[in-house]
C-alpha cells in the first residue's frame, strides 16, 4: 500500500470517527470502498479523502435523544461544571503572568508592604478556587453521565490545564536559575495549556447547536466594545511606559539637559547609547501594544457578528478580553521591569488579581449565569428550530 | 418527504444524475456523473437522504471482498420532486443547463 493510499485511509478513518455515532460506521465503510474503487471512475483517492474531511467538518452533530431527556437540573450541573473548569483553567494559565513578581514557588516572595496580606489572601483564594473548582467540575461531570461526550472531554482537558502551575513548579525545581524568567522551559507548560484550552473550548463550542436563527443585532454595541478594548490596552501601555517606568527619567530627561552639562559628563556617550536603547525598547513596547490593542479591539467588534452573539455574550466576551489584556500587560510590565519596585510590585499583582478574578467571573457566568439557566435544553431548542423551519417550508 | 431548504446547481446536478441513471447508482458514479467535486456531492447525498428524496443501500454483490459500496436511488416521491426541481431550476436560471447535464458512468 502506497503512502498516499495509507494517508487517504487514515484521513477517511479519522473523518468517520468524528462523525455522529449513528452514521459513523456507515460512512467509514462507504468511504473505504470508494477509496478502493476510485480508480474505476477515474477519481483521485485524495479527492475522496478531502471530501470525507470536509464532510466530517461540516456535518452537524445532532443532540442525541438521550440528552433531550436530561432534566434541567442535569443541564444546570453540566453548565456549572463547564464554567468552573474553564475558570480554573484560565486561572492556571494566568499564573504565567505572575512568574516574575511572584518569583514562583522556588524563590523568596517579594515584599509587598502593606498590600502583602491582601495579595496573599487573594492569590490563596484563587489558588483554592482553581483546586476546588477543578475537583468540583470533575465530580459534576461524573454526576452528569448522560451529557455530551465532547462536554465531558472538554471539562477533563480544562482540569488538566488548571494544573499548569504545578507543572511549571515541577520543571523549574530542577532548572531554576539556568534560564531567563518567562523564557524558561516551563513556558512550554503554559503553551501546551493554551493549546489544550483552545481545543476544549472548540469542543464546547461544537457541543452546542448553531444559532443560525438569531438575527444579527445592532453594530453599535460591538463596535463600542471593540473601541473600549483597544483604547484600554493602548492607555495601559502608555501609562506603563511613560508613568510607571523607573527608566522614564533616563528616557525623557535628556532634552532638558543643556549641552555644556552633557559635554562635561565623561560618561555621556555611554549614557546616550543607553538612552537610545531604552527609547527603542519603549517605542517597541508601545508599538506592540498599540497593534495588539487594535487587533483585539477589531476581534471583539467582529466576533458578535461572526458568531451571532447575544448582547450579554458580547458583554462577557468584552470583559474577558479586557481581563486577558490587563493580565498580559502586567506580565509585560514585570518582564520589562518597567515599574519602581515599591509601587509596581503590588500594583502589578493587583492588576493580575483583578484580571484573574474577572476571568473566573466571566467563565462561570458565561456558562452558568441566570440567562444560561433559562436556556435549559439546547438540544430541545435546536429540534424546535428545525421543526419550525420544516413547518415554514411546507 | 421534506422540502429542501436550499436547491443549488450542485443539488440539481446530483438529482439529474440520479434520474438519468434510473436504477440504484454507486456514490462515486453519482460524483462522476454530476461533474461536481466529491466534497460537494457527499453532503448533498446526505441531505437528500435525510429529506427522504433518495434512499441508499449497501451493494448486494457479495463477490467483491472488503468494504461495501453504497448505492443511491430516488424514492418515488423524490423522483417526482426532483423532476419538478430540475424544471423549476432550469426555468429560473437557464445559464445552469449545461452544468446540470449529467454524464452518467455505469457501475
Task: Report what the structure shows.
The complex is a heterodimer of chains A (394) and B (107). With 394 residues, chain A is mainly alpha-helical. Chain A is 76% helix and 0% strand. Chain A is built from 18 helices and no strands. Chain A is globular, with a radius of gyration of 26 Å. Mean pLDDT of chain A is 72; it is low at 63-69, 103-107, 249-254 and 374-385. Chain B is globular and about 45 Å long. Chain B is mainly alpha-helical and 107 residues long. Chain B has helices at residues 9-21, 27-34, 38-50, 76-92, 97-100, and strands at 25-26, 54-58, 70-74. Chain B has a three-stranded antiparallel β-sheet. In chain B, helix 1 (9-21) packs across helix 2. Chain B is built from five helices and three strands. Classes of the chains: A mainly alpha (394), B mainly alpha (107). The A-B interface holds A 26, 29-30, 32-34, 36-38, 40-43, 47-48, 50-52, 54-55, 58-59, 389-390, 393-394 and B 2-3, 5, 27-29, 31-32, 37-39, 41-43, 46, 66-70, 105, 107.
Name a few traits of the molecule.
heterodimer, A: 394 residues, mainly alpha, 18 helices, B: 107 residues, 3-stranded antiparallel sheet, 5 helices, 3 strands, 11% strand, globular
Topology at a glance:
The complex is a heterodimer of chains A (394) and B (107).
Chain A: H1 3-17, H2 21-37, H3 45-58, H4 65-68, H5 72-94, H6 99-102, H7 116-143, H8 149-161, H9 164-175, H10 187-207, H11 220-244, H12 248-252, H13 259-264, H14 268-306, H15 311-336, H16 341-368, H17 370-374, H18 378-393
Helix pairs in contact in A: 1-2, 1-3, 2-3, 5-7, 5-8, 5-10, 5-16, 7-8, 7-16, 8-10, 9-10, 11-14, 11-15, 14-15, 15-16
Chain B: H1 9-21, E1 25-26, H2 27-34, H3 38-50, E2 54-58, E3 70-74, H4 76-92, H5 97-100
Antiparallel strand pairs in B: 1-3, 2-3
Helix pairs in contact in B: 1-2, 1-4, 2-3
